[in-house]
Design a protein that fits this description.
Helix content is 39%, strand content 26%. It has helices spanning 11-21, 30-35, 37-40, 69-82, 94-103, 123-128, 135-146, 160-176, 182-194, 240-252, 268-275; strands at residues 4-5, 43-47, 50-55, 59-64, 88-92, 108-112, 118-122, 150-154, 202-208, 211-220, 225-233, 258-260, 281-283, 286-290.
């Protein structure tokens, strides 16, 4: 098994294995792997009918594809041992956890963390925001519309530079507030904007007057699920976040049944925000560490 850096030329064969697996977690996306490749030092290998993927040389993701997953895991365990690292396997669901324990009884400590579960929502619910539970969202959107001239555009060559200007201001405000953890995220966002077409990403842009006040980027993850990677808005503009959320769903996700909006990473404010949209499913993701 030969791991190497992931490149854009890997898209076709990796997507083939991802489609075979049908995994729902946000990690199982070629664009995710590419966008975070420099931050996490992502590497890939093709082995016995599977796609194997690792970060930081020793954190492995559950093999994708219909091939010999047991052989792939055994080989990755050997690589980790050879490098002196404790083998860690991540990104699998409950069914995968049961399979792993059946194939390797008592070998791994298997656990799950609520912080890493993906939030999945109904496209119809986020389109209409109907009913009393979304009353607050509708109010915020109404206040945004009260603020004056606004319009939505699909992201493309004519507005992507305006999105870069807005994101630079957003990230600078975060840095000025002492939040330096956003630097990696900014690198990821810039890569996404640079390679929107190559990664098959779709974006939405929200204007107030001539200024971009919010934008978002995502992709079709499967025939029924859309995956949102990035969402940025000025928090001091009331309703900007719920407005871009709804407009993106209305313009880019019709025809899909679900939208995956990733995990909350255990951040209290982000958890409250994601829970306030009432997910229809939480994708539980598991991790295994060699005992």
């Amino acid at each position: 098994m030969q791991f190497r850096k992931i490149t854009l030329e890997d898209k076709e064969w990796i997507n083939k294995y991802l489609k075979e697996s049908g995994y729902k977690g946000c990690e199982f996306s070629f664009s995710t792997m590419m966008m975070w490749k420099e931050v996490y030092h992502n590497e890939v290998a093709e082995y016995k009918g599977t796609m194997c993927y690792r970060s930081h040389k020793h954190i492995y993701t559950f093999p994708a594809g219909s091939g010999d997953k047991r052989a792939a895991i055994e080989t990755m365990m050997g690589l980790a041992e050879k490098s002196g690292q404790v083998f860690t396997l991540r990104g699998f669901d409950k069914e995968g956890a049961e399979w792993l324990e059946e194939q390797f009884p008592g070998v791994f400590e298997i656990s799950t963390s609520r912080d890493e579960w993906d939030y999945v929502y109904s496209v119809e619910a986020l389109s209409t925001l109907a009913g009393p539970k979304y009353h607050g969202k509708r109010n915020h959107i109404a206040r945004f519309k009260d603020g004056g001239d606004w319009h939505y555009e699909t992201m493309g060559p004519d507005n992507i530079e305006n999105c870069r200007i807005m994101s630079d201001k957003w990230y600078q405000a975060q840095l000025d507030a002492g939040n330096h953890t956003v630097l990696n995220e900014k690198q990821v966002l810039n890569y996404a904007l640079d390679h929107l077409q190559e990664l098959d990403l779709r974006g939405g842009v929200l204007y107030r007057g001539e200024e971009v006040v919010a934008f978002t980027v995502g992709e079709a993850m499967s025939e029924d699920t859309f995956h949102v990677h990035i969402e940025k808005a000025y928090s001091d503009i009331q309703g900007a976040y719920p407005m871009i959320n709804q407009q993106f769903v209305l313009h880019e996700m019709q025809g899909f049944q679900y939208v995956n909006r990733e995990e909350d990473m255990g951040i209290p404010g982000l958890r409250r925000a994601k829970e306030s949209y009432y997910p229809v499913e939480m994708i539980e993701k598991y991790k295994a560490v060699l005992k």
